[in-house]
Amino acid sequence: MYNTKIAGAGKFIPEKVVTNQDLEKLMETSDQWIRERTGIEERHWLRRGEETSSTMAAKASKDAIKMAGIEAEDIDFIIFATLSPDFFFPGNGVMLQRHLGITKTEIPALDIRNQCSGFVYGLEVADQFIKTGKYKNILLVGAEYHSGGIDISTRGRGISVLFGDGAGAVVLQPTDKDKGILTTHIHSDGSQAEILSAKNPGMHGGYYDEDHKEGGYDVSTDHPFVLVTDKMMEDSLIYPFMEGQTVFKTAVRKFPEVIKKALDTAGYTTNDVNLVIPHQANLRISQFVQKLLHLRDDQMFNNIQKYGNTTAASIPIAITEALEQGRVKEGDLVVLAAFGSGFTWGSALVRW
Ligand code: UT7
Fold first, then answer.
1. What's the CA gap between 93 and 88, in Å, rounded?
2. Separation of CA 92 and ligand 1 centre (Å)
3. Which residues pair with 335 in a beta bridge?
4. CA–CA separation, 140 vs 80, rounded Å?
5. What residues are annotated to the active site?
6. Which fold has domain 3-176?
7. Which is nearest to 99 in space by CA: 142, 60, 47?
8. Global pTM exceeds 0.85
9. 36-65 pLDDT, tens digit each
10. Which is nearest to 192 in space by CA: 232, 250, 144?
11. Over the stretch 125-175, which tens digit does the pLDDT of each residue have?
12. Structural domain boundaries of the chain?
């Protein structure tokens, strides 16, 4: 049995910067409100038609592949985490394979949802395949094109100011037993799935809607085509929805819990940790987590100020930046942790 190491990392961030002041021109919000509640100063949004989540992923992947010292054709498995894929189907995994020109090897491409936890979920999946020796060069990416699917009017301000576009990728390879990924933990609780959701377009056909439960309309006759209905468009039901405070309160409970689980399992304490790289959900959430776990400033990695919340992309983007800035060195003990829609959450403990 092998362990799994992160052999290469890369990121792609769209060129266009959208500051909080830019958002003030689009909706009733303020730089002060956004900074105070989220810590975000700016984010990057794609221009229409410029890129997609899979093309951004390809750019991030090329850097990760280069750092790992391999060629694209050496990749033997693609795992792609996103909530903003190019198409309803097929998934982004095969699109990435195409963009990278991996044409001869017919490798598998797996698509992962799991929103903000997508990267950590993907890491646990990849780890199983590397450990057993089945694959030797797994490309794991998280990429999001949020700006194309959010409500940028005042009605959507509780969500739209938070999210940014971007992609991050890592190449995973086998390593010695005492290095690399030491432990992973992934969890979910679907009892509050709608609290942070984008239900439409979707194939629920009104099943979860109140008026359906009350017999307000008959799905089979009123809406034979259920994916995108006139009602969804008329009522603007196509945008993401979030009960922010419930998400916040659950996040600040689950992040420390799952980080401690990782450390306890491997026999370490927070004192042993060189760096925690959390999913960049909200700077206030990360500061809360830091306080609860008694971590020093130099033990926490934050870059949400520049990029906003990039969901599945946030951890691989942060890994890439932490490496670029020399904040992660060989031998360091690093914790990755995520929490988000589903709810889903997870952690990974890595000896670099
Ligand atoms: O990646 C994981 C998923 N997401 C998260 O982790 C996010 C978790 N939640 C949060 O980060 C916070 O709940 C938010 C930053 C989203 C919101 O902060 P909050 O302190 O929970 O604010 P709130 O939703 O309770 O809203 C407070 C007020 C409301 O006005 P009233 O009703 O008090 O008059 C909102 O309408 O702030 C208003 N508001 C805004 N005002 C200016 C909401 N969004 C904005 C905005 N600009 N962008």
1. 13
2. 31
3. 276, 349
4. 6
5. 116, 279, 309
6. Peroxisomal Thiolase; Chain A, domain 1 (3.40.47)
7. 60
8. yes
9. 999 999 999 999 999 999 999 999 999 999
10. 250
11. 999 999 999 999 999 999 999 999 999 999 999 999 999 999 999 999 999
12. 3-176, 199-238
